Amino acid sequence: KLFFTDYGNAAKVERCDMDGMNRTWIVDSKIEQPTALALDLINKYVYWLDIYLESVEVVDYQGRRRQTITKGRQIRHLCGLAVFENYLYTVSSDNLSILRINRYNGTDVQALARLEDAKEIRVYQKRTQAAVRSHACEADPYGMPGGCSHLCLLSSSHKARTCRCRTGFILGSDGRSCK
Questions:
Q1: Which of 34, 83, 86, 130 is 20 to 30 A away from residue 124, measured at CA?
Q2: Could you tell me which residues the LDL-receptor class B repeats occupy (predicted)?
Q3: Which of 117, 94, 98, 120 lies closest to 109, judged by CA?
């Protein structure tokens, strides 16, 4: 799945398949300016920052069990969001520091370090990566991902895929090759 935020005409958090199909709104009420998003891949939770409502909130992948983690004026200056173990990590553009927020007790906020001009944050650690099972976009015997000549995008399950072409090419009638 692909998760993303939109604060155009109607602010929302959405998800879709990697090929863009099955687009679903998972949060579309009491949301104004969702600017950062982080996933808990293990427990299947979506966290987001709303800088207009000055809040950090969470829902499950279906948009249920919504909770506010923390709320207040300090949220207005946050950018980027990452989750690891019991904490959310973000960057304060106000004082250029990395903040750690306890995701179960949002009042436990600590500044960890100062950075110059940071706008995003990511946690790279083996435990943050879900195990990868066999999937439809694995390389075929000729080295082509999912048998696609350009791009292979997972569809509604790990067993289904859609081939797409780079800009300037069109998909052939076989649904795999680009011309």
A1: 34
A2: 1-43
A3: 98
DSSP string, 85-110: TTEEEEEETTTTEEEEEESS-TT-EE
Q: Which amino acid is at 143?
A: G
Contact (Cβ atoms closer than 8 angstroms) between residue 101 and residue 88: yes
34 pLDDT above the threshold of 90: yes
**In 10 A of CB 169, how many CB atoms?**
14
Q: Show the 3-state SS of 30-82.
A: CCCCEEEEEEECCCCEEEEEECCCCEEEEEECCCCCCEEEEECHHHHHEEEEE
Terminus-to-terminus CA distance in the chain, angstroms? 28
Domain boundaries, the chain: 2-128, 131-178
Instruction: Quote the distance between the C-alpha of residue 26 and its chain's center.
Output: 13
State the Cα angle at 124 between 76 and 15, rounded to 5°.
60
Look up residue 109 and give its amino acid. V
Q: 76 pLDDT band (50/70/90 cuts)?
A: confident
Residue 29 has pLDDT above 70, yes or no: yes
Domain range 2-128, CATH class: mainly beta
Q: CATH for 131-178?
A: 2.10.25.10
